[in-house]
Specification:
Layout: E1 2-4, E2 55-60, E3 63-69
Parallel strand pairs: 1-2
Antiparallel strand pairs: 2-3
């Protein structure tokens, strides 16, 4: 499986202790590119759990679309 993600470059972002989650004591950084709270993880990656091998997906406006499939 693969995911097409477009990022808009805004420069480096420095994270510090103010970014720590007060309950968990950590910082969750988004690695999937789907978070509405980017660069922080908001759990949006959960929608990708049933992606199929050999398929490229694009997520737009909360909807998953198939970009291409291996045959």
């Amino acid at each position: 499986m693969a995911r097409e993600v477009t990022h808009t470059a805004t420069g480096p972002l420095k994270l510090d202790e103010d970014d720590l989650d007060p309950e968990k004591g950590d910082v969750a950084v988004c690695l999937c590119g789907l978070s509405d709270d980017y660069p922080f993880c908001d759990g949006s990656h959960r929608v990708t759990e049933d992606e199929e091998e050999g398929v490229v997906y694009r997520y737009e406006d909360g909807e998953r679309r198939v970009v291409s499939e291996d045959e």
